[in-house]
Amino acid sequence: MPIAVFGIESDGLNLAVNLLILFLVVIYLALVYWTYADARRRIADPMLIGCAAAAAFLFPFVGSIVYMIVRPPEYLDDVRERELEMQAAEARMNAADFHLCPHCDYEVRSEFLRCPNCMRKLKDPCTNCAKPLDPDWKLCPYCEAEIPGVTPAPRSRRRRRSEETAPFEPFADAPPQ
Question: Residue 93 sits in which domain range?
Answer without folding.
Answer: 79-124
